[in-house]
TrEMBL record:
Domain of life where this protein originates: Eukaryota
Pathway noted in the entry: Nucleotide-sugar biosynthesis; UDP-alpha-D-glucuronate biosynthesis; UDP-alpha-D-glucuronate from UDP-alpha-D-glucose: step 1/1
The name this protein goes by in its record: UDP-glucose 6-dehydrogenase
PANTHER family: UDP-GLUCOSE 6-DEHYDROGENASE 1 (PTHR11374:SF53), UDP-GLUCOSE DEHYDROGENASE/UDP-MANNAC DEHYDROGENASE (PTHR11374)
EC numbers for this chain: 1.1.1.22
Record: residues binding NAD(+): 17, 22, 70-74, 111-112, 145, 256-259, 326
Catalytic activity as recorded in UniProt: UDP-alpha-D-glucose + 2 NAD(+) + H2O = UDP-alpha-D-glucuronate + 2 NADH + 3 H(+)
Gene Ontology terms, MF aspect: NAD binding; UDP-glucose 6-dehydrogenase activity
Positions of the catalytic residues: C256
Domain UDP-glucose/GDP-mannose dehydrogenase C-terminal: 312-436
Matching InterPro entries: 6-PGluconate_DH-like_C_sf, NAD(P)-bd_dom_sf, UDP-Glc/GDP-Man, UDP-Glc/GDP-Man_DH_C, UDP-Glc/GDP-Man_DH_C_sf, UDP-Glc/GDP-Man_DH_dimer, UDP-Glc/GDP-Man_DH_N, UDPglc_DH_euk
Family under the similarity heading: Belongs to the UDP-glucose/GDP-mannose dehydrogenase family.
Length: 464
């Protein structure tokens, strides 16, 4: 919305939320999320044509176009628990829009939703419409965190789905005109509603599938002595495949991939397509396998026990350049190590202690529900210590795990870290950021995902 305000000075954008603390933060100097370049965009527009407010009803009733970006968590109970999207927040947003509207509106689905959600929303709006015309559009978002502003300035494509009626086409044209302020028209794709909704789930499923494919290869590389970076490079040189999204890792995280694939799986099952559902389920299974495999490597390398041993965790966010920890592989790796009674010292440049403690206490799928429904920060996790410096985290540690590819982890003084660690000193690089040869020369025992193994590790094979 900030980018729309920046690129379309004549359009007034009001961002509304029922959370007072959220809106207060958006109106302050310390924005509630970290995203490179975002501060600048917000500061340029805020107070001019970009406003943050808790007066939801006023702004919705005044708007011509309403974008709905509420969360759509995975259901934790009832029908479809663990797979289907929970549309509670979407439904109440739609009911509110119907209640407060006095003029015709275009309602845009911005949250990622199951296919055919627009139909349900349309029913809520039209059954409560008092003669008002509502046009529903699906306009899924393809930006990635950490590069959001660049992605929005220069998108590969913008997708707008709508009804194939004249009114539906008029609504599509209205939204296309907004994006056409800065996006070349040949990159604005228009489709029917269901295609737009499904394309979003499909794009994320394809991206995640690439990562699971390369991660599956990483296990085979370790077993055979091949190097996954070399394999990915060679494979990615095929222009039909392309080089992006082939970095082997400890697993993908983030608020979208797993949730969207689970959602896709559920939709396939509901449509009587178990083979298709199982195919996509496997992408998640490999991701879980990769995280388990990583923990098992650590434990087996360290004489089959990490009980009472200090392990430094460098990086907790799900990727670099974000403070977001939703579904980060670090949660599963840390829980695995805590299960084996390790003592963790965690450092991430953008994630604070409260967030980490909350993440480690939370149940699977609870993360996307409002904070007041989540468990309180547990003071009971005494095994976890959060510090603000990689050197403090690694001091007297038996092992170091790199779980996010922050640039600063490439240039740490590893000699200093080695000198201050217990011996033998282990490094488990879940993101392939360190120079293994240099670290081995210092004296570390190094494990890097999908790379030829140290003799030490070969002697202690990890059983997943
Ligand atoms: C993803 C998609 O890339 C966006 O297009 C989409 O709009 C977004 O989800 C969404 O649905 O909102 P995001 O989750 O922000 O974006 O970040 P990604 O860059 O896709 O990374 C996801 C995870 O995959 C991260 O944990 C990352 O470290 C991991 N990853 C990525 C790998 O392990 N290897 C790779 O080669 C690339």
């Amino acid at each position: 919305m900030a980018v729309i305000a920046l690129k379309c000075p004549e359009i007034e954008v009001a961002v509304v939320d029922i959370s007072v603390s959220r809106i207060t933060a958006w109106n302050s100097d310390a924005l509630p999320i970290y995203e490179p370049g975002l501060d600048e965009v917000v500061k340029k527009c805020r107070g001019k044509n970009l406003f943050f407010s808790t007066d939801v009803e006023k702004h919705v009733s005044e708007a011509d176009i309403v974008f709905v970006s509420v969360n759509t968590p995975t259901k934790t109970q009832g029908l479809g628990a663990g797979k289907a999207a929970d549309l509670t927040y979407w439904e109440s947003a739609a009911r509110m829009i119907a209640d407060v509207s006095k003029s015709n509106k275009i309602v845009v689905e911005k949250s990622t939703v199951p296919v055919k959600t627009a139909e349900a929303i349309e029913k809520i709006l039209t059954h409560n419409s008092k003669g008002i015309d509502f046009q529903i559009l699906s306009n899924p978002e393809f930006l990635a965190e950490g590069t959001a502003i660049q992605d929005l300035f220069n998108p590969d494509r913008v997708l707008i789905g709508g009804r194939e009626t004249p009114e539906g086409q008029k609504a599509i044209a209205a939204l296309r005109d907004v994006y056409a302020h800065w996006v070349p028209v040949d990159r604005i794709i228009c489709s029917n509603l269901w295609s737009a909704e499904l394309s979003k789930l499909a794009a994320n499923a394809f991206l995640a599938q690439r990562i699971s494919s390369v991660n599956a290869m990483s296990a085979l590389c370790e077993a055979t002595g091949a190097d996954v970076s070399q394999v990915a490079h060679a494979v990615g040189k095929d222009t039909r495949i392309g080089p992006k999204f082939l970095n082997a890792s400890v697993g993908f995280g983030g608020s979208c991939f797993q949730k969207d694939i689970l959602n896709l799986v559920y939709i396939c099952e509901c449509n009587g397509l178990p083979e298709v559902a199982n195919y996509w389920k496997q992408v998640i299974k490999i991701n879980d396998y990769q995280k388990t495999r990583f923990v098992n490597r650590i434990v087996s390398s360290m004489f089959n026990t990490v009980s009472g041993k200090k392990i430094a965790i460098l990086g907790f966010a799900f990727k670099k350049d974000t403070g977001d920890t939703r579904e980060t592989p670090a949660i599963d790796v840390c829980k695995g190590l805590l299960g084996d009674k390790a003592l963790l010292s965690i450092y991430d440049p953008q994630v604070n202690e409260e967030q980490i403690q909350r993440d480690l206490a939370m149940k699977k799928f609870d993360w996307d529900h409002p904070v007041h429904l989540q468990p309180m920060s547990p003071t009971s996790i005494k095994q976890v210590n959060v510090v603000w410096d990689a050197y403090a985290a690694t001091k007297d540690a038996h092992g170091v795990c790199i779980l996010t590819e922050w640039d600063e982890f490439k240039t740490l003084d590893y000699q200093r870290i080695y000198n201050n660690m217990r011996k033998p000193a282990f490094i488990f690089d879940g993101r392939n950021v360190v120079d293994e040869a240099k670290l081995r020369a210092i004296g570390f025992i190094v494990y890097s995902i999908g790379k030829p193994l140290d003799q030490w590790l070969k002697d202690m094979p990890a059983v997943a």
